[in-house]
Amino acid sequence: MTSSDTGTVATRVTSSRFIGRTRELAELEAALHDASSGRPSLAFIAGESGVGKTRLLKELERHALAEGARVISGDCVALGDDELPYAPIVAALRSLTRDGDPVLDELGPATRAGLASLLPELAPAGAQASGDGDDPAQGRVFEALLTLLDRLGRDEPVLLAIEDLHWADSSTRALLVFLARSLRAERVLVAASYRPDELHRRHPLRSLLAELERAPRARRVELVPLSREELAEQLADILGAPADEALVTRLHARSEGNPFFTEELLAAGLDGRGELPSTMRDALMVRIESLPRDAQEVLRVIAIARRVDHSLLADASPLDAAALRDALREAVAGHVIVVDPDGRYVFRHALLREVVHDDLLPGEHAELHLTLARAFERRVEVDGPNAQIMAGIAHHYLAAGDQPAALASAVRAAEASEGVHAFGEAAKLYERALELWPRVNDPEALAGRDRASLLAQAAQAHDYDDHDVRGEALYEAALQEIDEQAEPHRAAGLLERLGSIRWKLGLAESGMATLERGLALLPPDDVSRERAWLLARLASCTMLRGRHRSAIEAARAALPVAEAAHEPGARARALNALGTSLMSLGSVDEGAEHVRKAITLALDEERPQELEAAFVNLADNLHQAGRSEQAREVVREGLETVGTRRDRCDWLELLEAEIAFDTGDWAHAAEHMLEARPYSGTTFVNSLLRRGEMALGQGDADTAADLLAQAQKATRYLDEPQFLGVLGALIAEMRRRAGDLEGGRAAVQAALDRIETCTDDVVRLARVATIGAIIEADAAQRARDLGDAEDERRALLEGEFHVARVQAAADDGGPVESAWLRSAEAEQARGAARPDPALHEAAADTWEELGRAYPAAIMRYRAAEAHVAGGDRDAAAAQLERAHAVAAALGAGWLRAETESLAARARLALADAAPQEAIDADHGEEVEDPFGLTPRERQVLALVAEGRTNREIGDTLFMAEKTASVHVSRILAKLDVRSRTEAAAVAHRLGLDGGLTAQPRA
């Protein structure tokens, strides 16, 4: 018998069994297994409303718990165009605090302080707000959350489940990007659901998902409607017996396999007879209208509030306590609302809420919003402000049409969002207040500030949210509201922020001109916060551009003003700029004293960002001055000192890796070669350069190319030689090794164009120019091989220009610049066909005195080449052996291959080199040859060197023209050249055709 035959009545509307979705669940379980093994990933569950996304997530959570994983979850909440900052993250954290998770007690004070902006109860005892003026602190929140996930995952894998991502606030979206790019080996799976049909063309999540779902560690699980067989299983489980075939057919046709719609249709007519609702909305309204009037009234309040606790609902509802309890029981019993883990009432499904909400009349809608806004206001009076509640109040007043209250509450909500570093939400709220400004009476009183201040606060929120273009426009609009002559200090303060944001946009000249304009508004003897920061920022920007002499002057002007104005942050910044510039110009000890003062000041004032910057600059300049051991000690000191104040010290870690790489400890360098996040700005650029240099040294050309391409994109707006010089040198060397000398030349010239003018950063200039000299030496050598006198002349002339640049840098620089000069001069001699092994050996000695094993080994390899050309095989072997040993010890794959190739060509023995032997393809005899050429191929090469065609080679050697062509192709591949002309040139230069005669076979 079937259910329709017996009149069976369902006691629930949801299937107790998890039906279908076997493949989808298996994919998510695989992602969880990967996370358990230290391969974190993100999973995105896409599907229309009611198709089963929540059920699939819950089943994944159940499986995760059964496997011993930790589950934390939260859902996004939409308030029209408003956003509740970090809504799902706060919910997830609240579950940890609610359960008293002991891991929270193990977190360091910096991590707890970062999390406390979301949940104040996590604040460390006695904690005080601290931070640098330029640090928007959202990064610290993200780092704290990442540290928490990492710590949670040490004991057991972590599933972070986020529902309704299509309603995510901008801070949650930013966090998702951060996690996608930052998770490395943490045992974490982030699983998020969303409705694709909600993502209209301009939805902020649309482009984000397009990027994230293509990531290697991301999975996209798309839910499709249930099949007829699966729907029959669902009905049988709900009814407790197999459903009638006609009912199955009818419900499947009407619901189109949507599980939730099926449940609602079944609830509307269990016997399968009569007219079923034609749409899901109709089915849901049948459910709602079957409830008592009081229950429906309560549902209207909850539909506006979305989720609400009992005390707030009692405050907002017109029902008395008893009637409210009865109404809630009816709604719960009717499977319309449920109680979440925090004791709040929420609709069982979003579609139920949408139906109730959309059925409200305009007057009801406005009245309920106003009622809730006032109820929330009373809650704030008792419990104090909360970013999410304040955002809710602003939303409800706006939806109620109370524009004065909407403006005032938008400003308060924006300030609360800034308090939790949700700057995207704050920016939207400030901009709403600006939109309402002309629509209300006395807006200044409502906002508690004038329009210029409101514009400046909106600009700052956009600035901190990395929406720099919008921030720049708003700062300019704020300036237009101010009379610069009447309020010079106020205008100067805005110009300082505007100059800063223009610097971030890569508009270096415009940014510095803006700072100068701000200074021009203030008297030369002015002592104020604004002037102190303008001068300090000007000094800092000038230093970063490598204009150290000007930076020294600017810093010395800033220091007395900062001290008199009691601005320790500005003073620390100026001291840092002064000391760094002095060290860069050769006054290493004097400059170090100033940077040490900046460190002390940053320590006293608890400014961790300034503190790390000072340690980095001190260590970096010591390293660039050839004092690498001292630099290493400063890095260690910095890691110990800053590490107690910040959870991450990426710049110090990267500098430790850089010093280790330069001084020949590549294994240690690899351990500290962290992968920074794109979110981290110049830290990301630095990470790309360090990793790209390592990959290039190891001979991993593909990885190097990918990393340097990312660095090119990330530096397109930068104006700092410390990045542009290194990037240009690495790209040029990469292209040179690939045989693309024109591409290498272009990279050198591009770098010089961006850093050479007026720069005092001679160490980066010397590096770029030396690579240029090496490329021109290669170009001159190739031109001679090909008999192109004009190209040879051009290469030699360009090489001379580069050596002159390095000479000028060495005149102003220290031992590192001198080592670059020795290398450039040795390469110039090679390019001029005067290879002098003594010059390369001298360059190698200079590098070794600095403890730089890798460039020294390269110079010894070049010295060996020169000895081979001069016929001194013993000297060549000695130099080549030293170069090969260093390459092998470092793991320098490219250099090791080059040394072994030269050994093979010159027939020199190397201790650990692979044996070189070749088999004659025609006769099978073993022969020795530099490139593994068979005797027959060497005969063909001799004819190629004479300029013979394939037909002429075939006639001479009595072989078919096609066979000759095959031999030539093999020769080109073995010689690693692209043309017969290059093959002939290499043969002549290396003597591969020497003593050979292309005798025909008898």
User: How many structural domains can be distinguished in the coordinates?
Assistant: 8
Helix content: 55-70%
Strand order of the largest sheet: 2-5-6-1-7
Q: How big is the Rg? A: 36 Å
- The global form is globular
CATH topology of the largest domain: Rossmann fold
Main structural class: mainly alpha
**CATH architectural arrangement of the largest domain:** 3-Layer(aba) Sandwich
Mean pLDDT score: 86
**CATH homologous superfamily identity of the largest domain:** P-loop containing nucleotide triphosphate hydrolases
Task: Point out poorly predicted stretches.
Answer: 1-12, 126-133, 270-274, 914-928, 995-1002
Span between N and C termini? 98 Å
**Class of the largest domain, according to the CATH hierarchy?**
Alpha Beta
In percent, how much strand structure appears in the residues?
under 5%
Largest sheet: 5 strands, parallel
Describe the structure.
There is one protein chain. Helices cover 67% and strands 5% of the residues. By secondary structure, it is mainly α. The chain folds into eight domains: 3-15 and 228-270, no CATH class; 22-222, P-loop containing nucleotide triphosphate hydrolases (Rossmann fold); 291-360, Arc Repressor Mutant, subunit A, CATH 1.10.10; 362-446; 538-546 and 570-663, Serine Threonine Protein Phosphatase 5, Tetratricopeptide repeat (Alpha Horseshoe); 739-834; 837-916; 919-990, Arc Repressor Mutant, subunit A, CATH 1.10.10. The strands form four sheets. A five-stranded parallel sheet has the order 2-5-6-1-7, sandwiched between helices. Strand 5 (158-163), helix 8 and strand 6 (188-194) form a beta-alpha-beta unit. The longest helix is centred in the last third of the chain and has 25 residues, at 762-786. The protein is globular, with a radius of gyration of 36 Å. 53% of the residues are buried. The model is unreliable at 1-12, 126-133, 270-274, 914-928 and 995-1002 (pLDDT under 50).
